[in-house]
Each structure stands twice: as structure tokens, then as C-alpha cells.
Amino acid sequence: QVQLVESGGGSVQPGGSLSLSCAASGSIYSFNVMGWYRQAPGKQRELVASITEGGSTNLADSVKGRFTISRDNYKNTALLRMNSLKPEDTAVYYCNLQQTVLGSPLSYWGHGTQVTVSS
Description:
By secondary structure, the chain is mainly β. The protein is built from no helices and eleven strands.
């Protein structure tokens, strides 16, 4: 099993910045992908950003140029840095880890952390 613990988040005014951190523990294997998803009220959960062990990143078009994702493979942590936040970024943000174990793809989720962007 894998446990994901998120920290950060909170409330910020438009144009502000926040950072989200995710710490993974448990049975973590190589070639995993860590990422952040978000879900706003009444909307589906969507990918915000992901990063492979090798450092390749994938960001949603809506956050490109404003958000960055990084990771520390030794500590099994992932950091989402969010700049120039907009009210539409308001959502619950979930950390995610995906890995293949014995040929089976597995996906793990954190409990989520609220990000609110409002004046």
C-alpha cells in the first residue's frame, strides 16, 4: 500500500501564490508518476500537473506558465508551486501516485486539500 499526505493549501487573493506538498510512503516502486488533480464543486476531477521519476512534466493548459511541479525522488515528495492564482483555480487538490506492480497499474490518492482563491 501507498500513503499520500498532502500539506499546504488555504485561502489566497487573486494573483497570489501557494504551494502544495505531497509526501508518499509505503510500497513505492520505480518508474512511478506523481501528480496533482483538482475537483471544483459540480465538476469532474481533472489533472493539474504530473511528473515522472525522470522529471518529465505534464501540465494542464489552464495552468501552464503559472504552476510548476517538481519532485524529490529520494524523499518521495512532490511539490506544486502555484503562482498568479485565479478564482477558477479554487478546488480541492488531490495528490496522486501511479505505478505498475506485477504488471498491474495502480493509482493512489491523498485525502485532498482545499485551495480557495477569492478577494
